[in-house]
């Protein structure tokens, strides 16, 4: 049976537009509405606050591996740490020099930089080694958090903002999706990307445009693509998130203008935190885009301001399961 991959990725030209909130609530909504499918939220915002800092997540646990011990990422974990054990391990990892590699708890950073001598797909990181659990959330939801620790940023920032590494990062994401698909069944993946499009966010956009084509477009010149990904049916919706701020929308429109006419229409503009009457928001939006004829820009999705969206990261707690928001989200992403 052919596996089906449904991806949603959230992008922005600047921070603070609500991208992480929308990513998290999208993942929760998908997991709640598709209880028989697997849902994975990938925290790719390696330059900001980690989801491991703001959610009560439980990290993978390896028997016999202490808080300051190096993790063998090629081996699947034995269980999960509890919430009260996970946070101290994150803090202890921050005290260990970056040259020590993955220590205590695993992050997306470790997967992206996993390039041991003699690497091949069979020796790559098994997905379970980087999948964290949200015990108070849907049982079928897993999270891959990034690390915001200075010791990890020192190593990963030169890579994610170096255009020469863009293809390497995109290839790592291909292998990650393929490994997740290899487990079979329907798979939903939500990407929360860093603010600004250049760098890691553009690698995700490139991946979206290539995989949404029929047939899919390989990354490598020799036409290779990991088999599970090559064989899967892929649907992707990439959302460029902006607020009603005049300059914010205009900057977003300029990036939308770079989407070629022959590319699949997977990218949409989402105007977040719309206050008051939607007509007022539309007026601001049309004024900002008066010189744009791009249909991706002039026909956006609209997400109204709501307490559940504004307050979600103001305390360490599980995300809310609000049926009203799930219905709203379903309309917006349908």
Question: What does it look like?
Answer:
By secondary structure, the protein is α/β, with parallel strands linked by helices. The protein has helices at 19-33, 51-54, 83-93, 108-112, 150-160, 166-181, 200-211, 227-231, 246-256, 278-288, 295-298, 307-310, 323-333, and strands at 4-11, 38-43, 60-61, 79-80, 132-133, 141-144, 187-192, 233-242, 267-274, 301-304. The chain starts with a strand and ends with a helix.
Q: Main attributes?
A:
334 residues; eight-stranded mixed β-sheet; 13 helices; 10 strands; alpha/beta
Order of helices and strands: EHEHEEHHEEHHEHHEHEHHEHH
Query: Which ranges are low-confidence, i.e. pLDDT below 50, for 5 or more consecutive residues?
Result: none
Mean pLDDT: 84
**Rg from Cα:** 20 Å
What structural class do the secondary elements suggest?
Answer: alpha/beta
Count the DSSP helices.
Answer: 13
First and last CA, distance: 25 Å
> Could you say which overall geometry the principal axes of the C-alpha atoms support?
globular
Spatial strand order of the main sheet: 5-6-2-7-1-8-9-10
Q: Would you report the number of β strands?
A: 10
Provide the β-strand percentage band: 15-25%
State the helical fraction: 25-40%
Q: Which helices and strands appear, and what pairs or packs with what?
A:
Elements: E1 4-11, H1 19-33, E2 38-43, H2 51-54, E3 60-61, E4 79-80, H3 83-93, H4 108-112, E5 132-133, E6 141-144, H5 150-160, H6 166-181, E7 187-192, H7 200-211, H8 227-231, E8 233-242, H9 246-256, E9 267-274, H10 278-288, H11 295-298, E10 301-304, H12 307-310, H13 323-333
Parallel strand pairs: 1-7, 1-8, 2-6, 2-7, 8-9, 9-10
Antiparallel strand pairs: 3-4, 5-6
């Amino acid at each position: 049976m052919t596996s089906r991959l449904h991806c949603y990725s959230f992008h922005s030209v600047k921070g603070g537009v609500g991208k992480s909130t929308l990513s998290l609530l999208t993942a929760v909504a998908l997991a709640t509405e598709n209880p028989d499918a697997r849902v994975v939220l990938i925290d790719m915002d390696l330059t900001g606050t980690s989801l491991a800092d703001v959610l009560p997540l439980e990290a993978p646990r390896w028997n016999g591996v202490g808080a300051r011990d190096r993790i063998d990422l090629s081996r699947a974990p034995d269980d999960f740490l509890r919430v009260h054990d996970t946070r101290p391990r994150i803090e202890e990892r921050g005290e260990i020099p970056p040259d020590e590699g993955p220590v205590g708890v695993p992050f997306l950073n470790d997967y992206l930089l996993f390039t041991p001598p003699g690497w091949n797909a069979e020796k790559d990181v098994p997905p379970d080694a980087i999948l964290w659990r949200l015990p108070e959330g849907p049982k079928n939801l897993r999270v891959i958090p990034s690390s915001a620790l200075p010791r990890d940023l020192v190593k990963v920032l030169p890579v994610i903002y170096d255009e020469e590494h863009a293809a390497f990062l995109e290839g790592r994401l291909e292998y990650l999706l393929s490994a997740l698909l290899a487990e079979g069944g329907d798979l939903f993946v939500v990407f929360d990307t860093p603010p600004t499009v250049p760098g890691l966010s553009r690698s995700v956009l490139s991946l979206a445009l290539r995989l949404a084509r029929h047939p899919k477009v390989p990354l490598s010149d020799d036409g290779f693509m990991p088999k599970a990904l090559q064989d899967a049916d892929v649907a992707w919706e990439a959302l460029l998130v902006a607020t009603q701020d005049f300059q914010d929308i205009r900057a977003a429109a300029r990036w939308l203008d770079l989407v070629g006419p022959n590319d699949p229409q997977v990218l949409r503009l989402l105007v977040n935190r719309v206050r008051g009457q939607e007509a007022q928001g539309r007026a601001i939006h049309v004024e900002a885009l008066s010189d744009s004829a791009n249909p991706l820009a002039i026909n956006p999705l609209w997400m109204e301001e709501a307490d559940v969206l504004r307050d979600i990261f103001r305390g360490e707690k599980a995300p809310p399961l609000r049926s009203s928001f799930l219905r709203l989200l379903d309309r917006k992403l349908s």
